[in-house]
Design brief:
The structure holds 2 protein chains of 2 kinds. Chain A is α/β, with parallel strands linked by helices. Chain A folds into 2 domains: 93 residues, STAS domain (Transcription Regulator spoIIAA), CATH 3.30.750; 249 residues, no CATH class. Helices cover 69% and strands 8% of the residues of chain A. Chain A contains 12 helices and 4 strands. In chain A, strands 1-2-3-4 form a 4-stranded mixed sheet, covered by helices on one side. Chain A is elongated and about 110 Å long. Chain A starts with 10 loop residues before the first strand and ends with a helix. By secondary structure, chain B is α/β, with parallel strands linked by helices. In chain B, 37% of the residues lie in helices and 23% in strands. Chain B is built from 11 helices and 10 strands. Chain B starts with a helix and ends in an 8-residue tail after the last helix. The relative contact order of chain B is 0.18. Classes of the chains: A alpha/beta, B alpha/beta. The interface between A and B is medium-sized, with 17 and 24 residues.
Chain lengths: 383, 276
């Protein structure tokens, strides 16, 4: 075996003898980490251009050490010759390489292995994508229907679930979310107040910052920001948990036991989130107003009581209730999006990642679209 | 992992395969008629016809990817047949309405490949869940029954462990404890020995024999583990991936000597030639 010092470049040269016999001379060290190069392509070109022989032999007198790099090269040459009716004479090859080639050729082709499909044309792909999206819409609607039926079972006391699960879930998507909801809504209050302050101060109307923050937070931003936090936090967690249960066949285990996974897993999650969302939203409303107050007091030099009084004057019941109602609807959307994605997760680790991503994206899109629809409807009915 | 070795300690199976084979003349428990299984346009298996008799250990065997697990999924109702029907005690499972289906399902116990224990619950809660959902037992009684079932599979003292805290072999046995929680009529095992060492896998075989002897359940096992097939199988079907149908059925030990189908013989002898 050639050592590092004597290691030469791998070479393959086609030699045509006077009597018409064609030999490939192999030389040097053939190792994968040195790369394979385009040696096979060069030989093939040579064989095609200068007339094809009937037999092909090998000369390995100058061949150094070799590994799969050589076998890969030989397999390609053999396949090329096989399709063109050139007989290969393996006699000149090293014993090990010959055996590997025989082993690779001996395995029967898998009849069940599907042939790799060519990439379909753009039009076909577009059509397939549209059908897929349309199908997703249909299956999502079906899921909503199944959940509604399960909620009906629950109302009639026929649903199979564990009460302890609901309590745990309420803690996970209620109490455990308080810190992040507080942080975000406080900052949103601060940002709203700051933006308002810069403009309103020019008119000497800084006191109206309190009105702006109070109305903005209670009507829109409290519910919206809570929903976005919960989509990223709880929607993702629902999807990841149900997706993993799907991968581990835990959901099938429920089904074959005669327990509906919708009743047992989805309904408690929807209920827990729907119960907690309005509470979190109310909490976010309070914290948001306090966030605004820090700007009012710190930057505009209003007194804390003046600010709160002005806020209280600005807040009107239908605005607050509208916000709470919206948050309830957002809760349903996020829980359904998360559970739907989790339940239709595929059977692999990447599938769990994809379903979690989709749950968050769908959740946020649904919330923002719903927010737009609410704005329109509330405007029409005059809230 | 001392409990691993004392898994099914104590009594050896009282009922050897030879003794149970005699009673395999009992009435049909599961009847599969002209079953075709397909995913979309792709037909996995067609024309499956076989009968599983009450109390026998029935093996579904075949090479990897031939549709063994798919057949199991059809038998337990996770997939709908593309054609044909499955009957349990002359009740049509394929055409059953939701209520009938639920009733038939409740007589099943299924052990999934990885155990499929509910990872957010302790072992006692896993075994206790079907009891809590389908019986009127009090929580204390449920705990006692769950502890008993866990003791039966050699997991006494592991009631409050979570599935992630125990070994793969123990998870499988806990899966068995959950499957037998409601004293089922039929036990389904999906590749019970997959991922287990030979000794543990043997202990699981013994456990299956004991459960059959003591519960009188019919057992359907999907496996390609030859040692298990010959040790505990009373009856079997061989699913052939190339012809997409069953190519042999009967007692696996007799099949070894009688069956002339080349692929079946190659499977049963790990690549040997059929008798001429």
């Amino acid at each position: 075996m050639a050592g590092e010092a004597t290691a030469q470049r791998a070479e393959a040269t086609l030699v045509r003898a006077a009597d018409g016999a064609v030999t490939i001379q192999l030389a040097g060290v053939w190792q994968l980490h040195r790369g394979i190069g385009a040696k096979a392509a060069a030989i093939e070109r040579e064989l095609t251009q200068n007339g094809k022989p009937s037999r092909l032999g090998f000369d390995t007198q100058r061949l150094g050490s070799w590994d799969s790099a050589l076998v890969t090269f030989l397999a390609r040459i053999e396949e090329f010759c096989g399709t063109r009716g050139i007989v290969i004479d393996r006699a000149g090859l090293p014993e090990g390489a010959r055996q590997l080639l025989e082993l690779a050729a001996s395995a029967p082709p898998q009849s069940t292995a599907a042939a790799p499909q060519a990439r379909p044309p753009l039009l076909a792909r577009t059509g397939a994508a549209v059908l897929r999206v349309a199908g997703t819409g249909g299956s999502a609607l079906e899921f909503v229907g199944v959940v509604a039926i399960a909620l009906g079972h629950l109302a009639r006391g026929q649903a199979r679930y564990r009460k302890v699960d609901i309590v745990t879930l309420i803690q996970a998507c209620g109490a455990d979310a308080l810190t992040i909801v507080a942080l975000i809504s406080f900052l949103v209050g601060v940002i709203l107040a700051f933006m308002g302050a810069v403009q309103l101060e020019q008119f000497g109307a800084s006191i109206y910052v309190a009105d702006l923050v109070a109305i903005g937070i209670t009507r829109e931003m409290g519910a919206m920001m809570t929903a976005i936090i919960m989509a990223g936090r709880t929607g993702a967690s629902f999807a990841a948990q149900l997706g993993t249960m799907k991968v581990r066949q835990e959901i099938e285990a429920l089904e074959t036991m005669g327990i509906s996974p919708i009743e047992f897993l989805v309904v408690p999650r929807v209920i827990a989130l729907v119960l907690m969302m309005p509470l979190l939203c109310l909490y976010a409303d309070f914290i948001g107003v306090f966030g605004g107050a820090t700007i009012g007091v710190g930057m505009l030099h209003l007194s804390f009581t003046t600010y709160l009084k002005e806020s209280a004057k600005a807040i009107y019941p239908s605005g607050v209730l509208g916000g709470l109602f919206k948050s309830l609807v957002y809760g349903i959307l996020i829980a359904i999006a998360g559970c739907y994605q989790g339940m239709k997760c595929g059977n692999s680790a990447p599938a769990v990642g994809e379903c979690t991503t989709a749950a968050v994206v769908d959740g946020i899109i649904l919330v923002v679209v719903a927010c737009g629809l609410f704005a329109l409807v509330f405007h029409v009915i005059g809230i | 992992m001392s409990s691993e070795s004392e898994a099914v300690g104590g009594a050896r199976p009282t009922d050897g395969p030879a003794a149970t084979h005699a009673r395999a003349g009992a009435e049909a428990h599961i009847t599969v008629r002209n079953l075709t299984m397909a995913y979309g346009d792709f037909v996995v298996m067609r024309g499956l016809n076989f009968v599983v008799r009450r109390g026998e250990i029935f093996i579904v065997m075949g090479g990897s990817g031939c549709g063994k697990s798919t057949l199991l999924r059809h038998l337990v109702g996770l997939e709908r047949p593309a054609a044909g029907e499955i009957l349990y005690d002359d009740e049509n499972f394929t055409l059953a309405n939701a209520a009938e289906r639920q009733r038939i399902l409740r007589r099943f116990g299924v052990l999934y490949q990885g155990g499929a224990l509910w990872s957010s619950m302790t072992l006692a809660e896993n075994v206790g869940l079907p009891l809590a959902q389908f019986t009127d037992l009090t929580p204390e009684e449920i705990r006692e029954v769950a502890a008993l079932k866990l003791a039966l599979v050699g997991l006494k003292g592991f009631e409050d462990h979570y599935p992630a805290e125990i070994s793969g072999g123990m998870q499988k046995r806990a899966g068995v404890a959950r499957a037998i929680a409601l004293d089922p009529d039929v036990l389904f095992f999906d590749e019970p020995s997959a991922g287990l060492d030979p000794v543990t896998s043997r202990l699981l075989d013994d456990l299956i024999l004991e459960l059959r002897a003591n519960l009188g359940a019919t057992v359907v096992i999907v496996t390609h583990e030859l040692a298990s097939i010959f040790a505990i199988g009373d009856n079997s079907v061989f699913l052939d991936a190339e012809s997409h149908t069953m190519t042999a059925s009967g007692n696996p030990r007799e099949m070894l000597t009688n069956c002339t189908d080349a692929r079946v013989h190659r499977f049963l002898t790990r690549g040997g030639k059929p008798p001429t």
